[in-house]
Write a structure and sequence with these properties.
With 333 residues, the protein is α/β, with parallel strands linked by helices. The protein folds into 2 domains: 173 residues, 3-Layer(aba) Sandwich (Rossmann fold); 138 residues, N-(1-d-carboxylethyl)-l-norvaline Dehydrogenase, domain 2, CATH 1.10.1040. Helices cover 51% and strands 11% of the residues. An 8-stranded mixed beta sheet has the order 3-2-1-4-5-6-7-8, sandwiched between helices. α8 runs antiparallel to α9 and α9 packs antiparallel against α11. It is globular, with a radius of gyration of 19 Å.
Length: 333
Amino acid sequence: MELRVAVLGAGSWGTSVAALACRHSPTLLWGRSPASVREINEQRSLERYLPGVRLPRTLRTTESIEEAVREADVLVMGVPSHSMRATLEEVAKFLRPWVPVVSLAKGLEQDSHLRMTQVIQDVLPDHVAGALTGPNLAREIMAGFAAASVIAIEDERVARQVQRVFHSGRFRVYTNTDVVGCELGGALKNVIAIASGMGDGLGVGDNTRSAVITRGLAEITRLGVAMGGRAPTFAGLAGMGDLIATCVSPQSRNRHVGEQLGKGRTIEEIIAEMHMVAEGVKTSRVVLELGARHGIELPIAAEVYGVVHEGRTAMQAYRGLTQRAPGAEMDSD
């Protein structure tokens, strides 16, 4: 059966996912900006987010949430974490029963600390909730480079059905029933990417960056397992794979934030000039609160929080990390 797909959010990743889906399924993309909707429909481009990319002729775009979702068989939420709940509340007025809802957002709700699938289940309790996550840089995928991702849904049967919507020769999609681990890997790595970017801005070298990424993965895994995720998930695409891409790529928003902080700019200056959301800025606060709740020390996340929210410098953060006394690698902070 041909599944009809609705994608909400015409940013770089939402638009890219819609372009992938429309190869297999009738796909309707909702955008908040009338100018972006017209550009996609009339010019087959979205220069602000995907410069130089030619979008498929079969991809249709609308300004109406009702039009986008009322006949959808699969709903994909490509809006940022901070607007997920409000958008879902609008969706609830028009979405048919039992339609699976897939999140693309790699963040956590600020006050509740909920993962995005938990927000979906809170607003739409009768719908299967999942996440599409992994090392997925939108511009590379739209340029035709090979990539892999994970569709995380607890129901394996539904996961396989949704998998077919996105999977293609150059975009390999694997299933994973560990929704908790997959979502936490995607959200927590953004904080580590800011730390990695700060090192790049400071010019500390590849050895230091490698150490930050590796110890960052240890932090992500400790907290993720304490919250119910499975350890192997954090060694896979949704964990280590996503972490590496986000920490090293010049296309990474969170790495960019860290790099600019390392060069001495303020967080306010950096955010003001960005067109897209860097989820790690807000997530750094949530991560420390979750660490305290579960009794997990998170030294890298703590230093990132200090720079982003407390006025510390990137140099002070790196000095703080190097002054910590090391213990045994496999069980220490």
